[in-house]
Design goal:
179 residues; Aminopeptidase; 5-stranded antiparallel sheet; 3-stranded antiparallel sheet; binds coenzyme A
Length: 179
């Protein structure tokens, strides 16, 4: 099914050795819901209405399809594992400060610790700096989210300390264009 979607000219944000990140289609709802309805995926994120229900999944996909972002300064896309041709999670850059977005990933629990977030994160950084005017990228993680903090470190971000983010204390990381 993924092949069919891609051949129908769905925008691919980028492709790495094992993964690609592409725009959503409405056909993605069931698979993304399967991933995002697992409470483990939201253990350290304090987003509203978690784990996701089917309606939230549909609204999320519709929002990003309607916005139709095609530049990397603000986007969210479906992560596809090339070997299985399956959606394994989501990744993107969220607006935070002007020209300084925040990176986000959420992978299905069975795909953790395979190096995938690191692979995507490095590519988001290099492609976003090459193709947009952003001057830096922030990464925020719950201080106890060891995996997320480790990934932010592995993709070259510097630790800035603990700060307030969306009404909670998060560990802040940052990488600037000149690094
Ligand atoms: C955080 C997340 C994106 C990481 O994705 P991932 O593909 O598993 O990350 P990677 O495999 O690239 O790297 C994970 C690193 O964390 C380390 N790690 C994972 N769990 C750990 C733990 N409990 N203690 C210590 N290190 C841990 C891994 O060993 C690895 O580091 P290493 O390469 O030095 O060994 C993934 O766990 C996830 O989607 N979690 C749920 C959503 C979330 O918290 N998103 C982040 C905030 S939006």
């Amino acid at each position: 099914m993924e092949e069919e979607i891609i051949n129908n000219l769905v925008y691919i944000y980028f492709e790495t050795k094992n993964l690609l990140v592409r725009q959503y289609t409405m056909k993605d709802i069931d698979r993304l819901y399967e991933i995002m309805s697992n409470p483990l995926v939201h253990q350290y994120t304090k987003d509203k209405n978690c784990p996701w229900d089917r309606l939230k999944t549909e609204q999320y996909i519709r929002f990003f399809m309607d916005k139709n972002f095609v530049t990397l300064d603000c986007f969210h896309g479906a992560i596809i594992e090339k070997a299985s041709n399956k959606i394994i999670g989501l990744a993107g850059l969220n607006p935070y400060k002007e020209n300084e977005p925040e990176i986000e990933w959420k992978l299905g629990a069975m795909y953790w610790n395979k190096g995938y977030a690191t692979e995507i994160g490095k590519d988001i950084i290099s492609k976003a700096f090459k193709t947009t005017n952003i001057i830096g990228i922030y990464g925020m993680a719950d201080p106890e989210n060891v995996a997320s903090r480790r990934v932010l470190q592995k993709i070259g971000m510097n630790y800035l300390g603990i700060n307030e983010f969306r009404n909670k204390k998060d560990a802040f990381y940052y990488i600037g264009r000149l690094q």
